């Protein structure tokens, strides 16, 4: 038995730090769960990240792991790490509200494959988290369960739709959380809350047992503290699933073993237009400092032109709008008044889009992916952008139910993340600084299909030479 981790430090442990300390016998799982529960009880009344807290079940699971560890039994790669997940991941017999009034009492008969894989790896599930209604806004507003608040400043957005996941990881309520990403819903709360978020290649992770939003753009993935956390999480959850016929058969590498700690010789492209169009000065400053850190670490950063981005941005919104409307068609006919105003308007808008435009958007997807890769990734390993081109907005500034005039700022939140959902490319967001109001700024790194190992290696190398990911809100 090695020296135990100090009790005062427990909630600050990242997912991999916690799991590794548990495996070495330096950490009791029950002690970490209790530390996380104490933080939730002390601070979630302000943050509003949690929908359902399974306190006793989490403590029992942790105690069982401690007993097994003491008996010398083998433990999984995530044993000892407490987690909570966006309330759209089905667990048989447990309510999954999807952040909505319509499904407030829905009890699914199946468990999501991704939860089954986390369970098998030893993750301790503590319950479910707040989210935008049906995962359909980029800010984290929720008219039914209350808005989630940014732990860095409670007046500001968490980002959405995985609002509770981003806020809870930042507030040290747990070590990791599942989010979902259809237009940026992992990377946005990761950025706005100052944590790390990974959207893998489309089809890399099974979507079985997950409330859908867009057949073409939905992704399953983690919000965590570090790129190393994301690498281990993806290794556990990725891979083909017979329950999800869209899941890829591509072999799953050991992403964590690929974290070499260096970006020396890596070529990173920065698109001259679109991602920096109209960007706020503090965001640009933090982004340029991040690029400088990557150059100092040995990366080669060059500017490229990518004219395909105009069409990509337009088609992204069109595809998700139509597919979301199709998924909600019956509920929109039977319960239109049970949706928040902005969501009802968004879904009705999807019904007005002509079918030929939707088919056009889908049919051009492959060609635009090839064009973007040729423009931005030929001779380059990654594309770098700010994750969010504007400063973190307040909840009031992006509340479109209260004031429809906020629509432009509301949609600007996800402008830089949406294109990578349409293209299906693996994309990581890591903290890279703070703006002039003390709110986080994110660096977004995107690579070729199934090049998660390269994306994660760059994010990890960046985090080895910076400490933004180590900073936590005071609460």
From TrEMBL:
Family annotation (PANTHER family): AMIDASE AMID-RELATED, TRANSAMIDASE
Organism: Roseicella frigidaeris
PROSITE patterns reported for this sequence: AMIDASES (PS00571)
Matching SUPFAM superfamilies: Amidase signature (AS) enzymes
Amidase domain span: 32-456
Protein name: Amidase
GO molecular function, one term: catalytic activity
